[in-house]
Design goal:
Elements (H helix, E strand, L loop, with lengths): L2 H25 L3 H10 L1 E7 L4 E2 L6 E3 L1 E5 L5 E7 L10 E7 L2 E3 L4 H7 L2 H18 L3 H8 L5 H9 L5 E6 L7 E5 L2 E6 L2 E6 L5 E9 L2 E9 L5 E5 L6 H25 L4 E3 L8 E3 L3 E4 L2 E4 L3 E7 L2 E6 L4 E5 L6 H21 L1
Parallel strand pairs: 5-7
Antiparallel strand pairs: 1-4, 1-6, 2-3, 4-5, 6-7, 8-9, 9-10, 10-11, 12-13, 13-14, 15-16, 16-17, 17-18, 19-20, 20-21
Helix pairs in contact: 1-4, 2-3
Length: 350
């Protein structure tokens, strides 16, 4: 059995075992003893005490005594399990006895809960022991995740000249699904399918937050142009933050020199945007969009506030962009701050 199958089996068996044990524990509050005491008990005639304590509302006997003679002729005195309606105070009634206790016939729900409970508890205990026996430990996970990469992934990585392996980012509870980064790209493996991308082919990386079932989760959306999108979430990558930091840095390292060269050549770089969001572009003269342009020499500050990027000009101009709706947003912020720092350094030197 593969390590993923063992982990999946544990995730399935352990909760089920817990439910069975919980059921047995709740039944042990009274249903098991009453149901099985009556089922296995000897039928006897019980002289009920003239006074018994019981719970108001349900009528369940809390302190009631009686005496009887067993089939072997031995006299017994003990407690009575049942309800006030099962006995007649000071009179003789037919019950079943065993172990020093007399039992009235339990209600249908007590039989239904109490009789199967020991079997459920036994199955729960055995299955829980089995679950922990097959559960892979940290050492086994580490060993499985450090094995050589599959031949297919290695071949694809070599065919695309991805270079040396860098870091492995696994899916939760998996040693075969996830992302492996290389010197010049990454490979994404999921359910037998392997997707390979070079850093210099990626046109944009979006860092977004989506709400699923009232839970806000981070996701990285990789765009290689056209309709080619790859969305990675914490359901697919265990260390999503670490992977996101790496991919943003790698893409920035490859893309930034190209953008600077475009500006030197008098060309414009347009940052990819999400849907109908406002666009952002670097022109040879400044940064802007449909809402105006701020010359590089007039940039004052770049702030990040509540998921938004605020680009400020010295004359009070402002460009506001959503962090999640602008691709390569980390590069945008770093390059703008470099423009500001370089301009200040030139002013000081002059």
């Amino acid at each position: 059995m593969s390590i993923e199958k063992r982990a999946s089996a544990f995730a399935l068996i352990a909760p089920l075992s817990g439910v069975l044990l919980l059921y047995c524990g709740l039944a042990a509050l009274g249903s098991i003893q009453h149901a099985w005491g009556w089922k296995l008990g000897e039928e006897v005639r019980v002289k009920v005490a003239k006074s018994c304590s019981y719970l108001s509302g349900s009528g369940t006997l809390s302190d009631c005594r009686g005496s009887w003679t067993s089939a072997d002729g031995e006299q017994h005195t003990g407690s009575i399990e049942g309800t006030l309606g099962d006995v007649r105070l000071g009179q003789t009634v037919t019950l079943r006895a065993g172990g020093g206790t007399a039992y009235a016939e339990p209600s249908t729900w007590i039989k239904t809960i109490g009789l199967p409970a020991p079997f459920a508890g036994g199955v729960g205990a055995v299955s829980l022991a089995l679950a922990f026996a097959i559960r892979p430990g940290k050492a086994r996970w580490a060993e499985a995740r450090d094995r050589p990469l599959p031949d297919e992934m290695t071949t694809l990585a070599q065919s695309r000249d991805l270079g040396a392996e860098r870091t492995r980012y696994w899916a939760p509870s998996s040693a075969t699904r996830g992302v492996v980064t290389f010197e010049h790209g990454f490979a994404f493996s999921w359910d037998g399918e392997i997707d390979v991308h070079r850093w210099d082919e990626i046109r944009g990386v979006f860092e977004r937050y989506e709400t699923v079932r009232n839970k806000v989760g981070r996701q990285y959306v990789v765009w290689t142009g056209g309709d080619a999108w790859l969305t990675l979430t914490d359901q697919q990558i265990e260390d999503l933050a670490g992977f996101g930091k790496d991919i943003v840095q790698y893409v920035t390292d490859h893309l930034r020199p190209k953008v600077l060269e475009m500006l030197r050549q008098g060309e414009t770089y347009l940052f990819p945007k999400w849907g109908s969001a406002s666009y952002t572009e670097f022109t040879p003269h400044g940064v802007g969009g449909a809402d105006g342009l701020i010359p590089y020499s007039e940039l004052a500050a770049v702030d990040i506030q509540n998921g938004r990027i605020v680009i400020r000009g010295q004359g009070g101009q402002r460009l506001v962009r959503s962090w999640g709706d602008t691709a390569n947003v980390g590069m945008l912020v770093v390059m703008l701050r470099d423009f500001i720092a370089n301009h200040r350094d030139r002013n000081r030197s002059s």
